């Protein structure tokens, strides 16, 4: 018999820790918010991303939205004129209680450089248990051109590198950044830009599958989410107009 006032739960049922939604996850599924007005009118709006638990089925999500990422700090005119080169800030926060977990900041320019196009300065702020931690986003892989050379960058404890692939930058192509822990040298985890379906092509949005390294902390998982956002803004973002 159940004692009065004692709450019980069914066995073998995991309870979500809303204050720490990333703690138990092995990976996340990231997808941009669809906006039909933006797709039809061809104007650049502030990007937003919904983050879910990664399903065991490759390329799929599981459960409700856990974390939301929202672009702020870029004006309407700046988005129309500069497109992916614009400066911006993207704030990351939990959906359940709007708790900030990190911020991604990008200066004017692109993460890749070719010809006279200079790489931009970028910064990730991690709001963890030990307070705020700041990480410069590095580009140790030299001159990069999507589709022509391998792509790569670093954020915090991790190095991200993908192969040279023209197909990876087409709507039907998939592109993979392999993750290396700079402290241990272990290659574990990945950031994958998924193939676009018909609806994704119409809305000009991207989706990402992010697999965390096995021993990643919550703060490091925020770094990895910022890496997916970084790759989207700097390598794969598509302008909504024809300019």
Automatic annotation (TrEMBL):
InterPro entries tied to this protein: Scramblase (IPR005552)
An annotated Gene Ontology molecular function: phospholipid scramblase activity
Organism from which the protein derives: Chloropicon roscoffensis
Family: Belongs to the phospholipid scramblase family.
A GO term from the CC aspect: plasma membrane
Protein's UniProt name: Phospholipid scramblase
Pfam family, any one: Scramblase
């Amino acid at each position: 018999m159940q004692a009065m006032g004692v709450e019980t739960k069914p066995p073998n049922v995991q309870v979500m820790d809303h204050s720490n939604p990333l703690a138990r996850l092995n990976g996340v599924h990231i997808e941009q918010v669809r906006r039909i007005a933006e797709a039809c009118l061809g104007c650049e709006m502030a990007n937003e991303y919904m983050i879910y638990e990664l399903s065991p089925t490759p390329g799929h999500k599981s459960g409700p939205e856990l974390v939301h990422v929202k672009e702020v700090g870029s004006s309407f005119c700046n988005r129309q004129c500069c497109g992916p080169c614009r400066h911006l800030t993207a704030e990351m926060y939990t959906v359940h209680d709007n708790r900030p977990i990190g911020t991604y900041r990008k200066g004017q320019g692109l993460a890749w450089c070719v010809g006279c196009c200079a790489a931009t300065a970028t910064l990730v702020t991690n709001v963890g248990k030990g307070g705020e931690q700041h990480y410069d986003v590095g580009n140790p892989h030299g001159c990069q051109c999507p589709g022509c050379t391998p792509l790569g960058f670093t954020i915090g404890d991790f190095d991200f590198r993908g192969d040279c692939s023209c197909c990876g930058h087409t709507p039907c192509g998939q592109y993979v950044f392999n993750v290396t822990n700079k402290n241990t040298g272990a290659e574990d985890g990945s950031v994958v830009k998924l193939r676009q379906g018909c609806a994704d092509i119409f809305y000009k949005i991207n989706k990402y599958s992010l697999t965390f390294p096995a021993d990643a902390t919550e703060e490091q998982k925020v770094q990895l989410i910022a890496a997916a956002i970084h790759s989207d803004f700097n390598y794969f973002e598509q302008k909504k107009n024809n300019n």
